[in-house]
Write a structure and sequence with these properties.
Elements lengths: L7 H4 L29 H8 L15 H5 L10 E6 L4 H6 L7 E6 L3 E6 L6 E4 L17 H15 L10 H7 L20 H6 L13
Length: about 210
């Protein structure tokens, strides 16, 4: 369908923001063409309320700088979108396993790249010279460097920390060095079952095994 392949009418979401704060007066009525994502909205709402933004939970970033600072510099070099088509009749017709029926889009100001799992060829559009995305350049050897750059970005995005959502970075730093275990003794239910030497070994903190370089 028309919403399966990341064409601009599907992935570009119209966004109009009204910020009643006086700090936004200088930016009223302006248009921002920076690369932003829908995941930026929740951090923006929290930031506007003066609440801390838990960046270990929320992957986006606040858009307030774009609303209040005329000199705000864009921070995102590319945007990402995902699509799971495992429930589509096309997946059944093509014999694609549910885990392989996935699409990933990487787009920047110039290029739009789509990676398809399942052994399918990638897709590439030149958004500058082909704004309606009719000409797929994914099979053109001349554009292989661009495709490789997009794959590097996809890999960078895939390696992001997206699993740890309950502990902040500050809490992680505070815990460093707090684990000093030296192992366990199987089958021991009472400290009197071990020797005095073993009791000293397994009681208290373990000696530090890592010394930071000078």
């Amino acid at each position: 369908g028309e919403k399966d392949l990341f064409h601009d009418p599907s992935v570009k979401v119209p966004l109009i923001v009204y910020d009643p704060s006086p700090e936004a007066d200088a930016r009223r009525g302006t248009v921002c063409d920076a690369l932003v994502e829908a995941i930026d909205l929740a951090p923006t709402f929290l930031d506007a309320l003066g609440a801390p933004v838990p960046d270990h939970v929320l992957e986006g970033r606040s858009l307030l700088p774009f609303l209040r600072d005329e000199n705000a510099a864009p921070w995102r070099g590319f945007v990402v979108s995902e699509y799971d088509w495992s429930c589509s009749p096309a997946a059944e017709a093509m014999g694609v396993a549910p885990r392989d029926a996935r699409l990933f889009m990487i787009a920047d100001e110039r290029w739009k790249f789509v990676h398809a799992e399942g052994g399918f060829r990638s897709v590439l559009f030149d958004r500058k010279n082909d704004p309606h995305e009719f000409d797929d350049l994914g099979a053109d050897p001349a554009h292989r460097p661009t495709i490789e750059r997009m794959y590097e970005r996809l890999g960078r995005w895939a390696r992001r920390m997206a699993q740890r959502t309950t502990v902040t970075d500050d809490e992680i730093r505070a815990r460093r060095g707090g684990s000093g275990g030296v192992g366990i003794l199987l089958g021991v239910y009472d400290e009197h079952e071990i020797s005095e030497e073993e009791r000293r070994r397994y009681t208290g903190r373990a000696p530090a095994r890592f010394t930071p370089p000078d």
